[in-house]
Design a protein that fits this description.
The chain is α/β, with parallel strands linked by helices and 284 residues long. It has helices spanning 12-22, 45-57, 76-95, 116-130, 154-163, 176-181, 190-200, 235-242, 264-279; strands at 2-6, 27-30, 61-65, 100-104, 137-141, 170-175, 206-210, 213-214, 225-226, 251-254. 39% of the residues lie in helices and 15% in strands. The chain has an 8-stranded parallel β-barrel with strand order 1-2-3-4-5-6-7-10. Strands 8-9 form a two-stranded antiparallel sheet.
Amino acid sequence: MRFGSHISIRDGYLGAAYHAVKIGAKSFQYFPKNPRSLSVKEFDCHDAKECAKFCNDHDLLTIAHTPYPTNLVADEDQIKLVIDSLLNDLEIANECGSIGVVVHFGVLKNTTNPLEGYQRMIGTLNEVLARWDGEALILLENNAGKSGPTGTMIEELVQVRQLTEYPDKIGFCLDTCHLFASGVWDGDNWHEVEEKGIELGLFEHLKAVHLNNSAYPTRSMKDRHANIPSGEIKVEQIIEFLLSPVFRDIPFVLETPHERKFSHEDEIKFLNEMMGQFANGHKP
């Protein structure tokens, strides 16, 4: 399976790809620019193209992630910055040969109209994608629920994509911590989640998974990631998730804590060994 992790671009895009191979990753995620800014980046196109070539040669799949301030339902005085930044992210991801750019489902607070957030988000996506003709996709990510229930449900992801003018330019990224923290997946109901996702067509457009355990129990609505062996989601529940036939050749990217005593390299090795047991006929 294509296990990988989020990797810094401090050594450039190609440097990130080198690091992915060094730690045994089959995929990786990166911030295309400063993760705390919406400023448009004049990037090194040669570095990006070399990254794309290296990843193709080494069978690496990659995804980018928008900076933290990216908000698809931003106010009128901020939305132009968001749109220009997102187009910049898509351009960088495209040159790096990435599948797409992950962006969080937008949540609009303090509104009397519950539909306003969805309307703003669809409008933003339409404006961005009307100006985008590259191959990199926008990858909508499910929310954990820390700012309210908006964006936690499979139905919302699917509906927003369908209601845009450019659905073919949009895919999905599922975050397992968010799915668990929101209560959509409580650890024991994966088959129900799987059936609903199949029924709604979610998995047809799923392009990546953020493979994170949760530091808090299901329905906590808290977005705090934990390492795969040590969170609230049991290892056997994660195995059941990973063994689902709906996941084809997509990246499973760790956004978990990493330190010397248990690095992302260690965690990728743990996952490969764990899943290797079942490839050899063992059952969870």
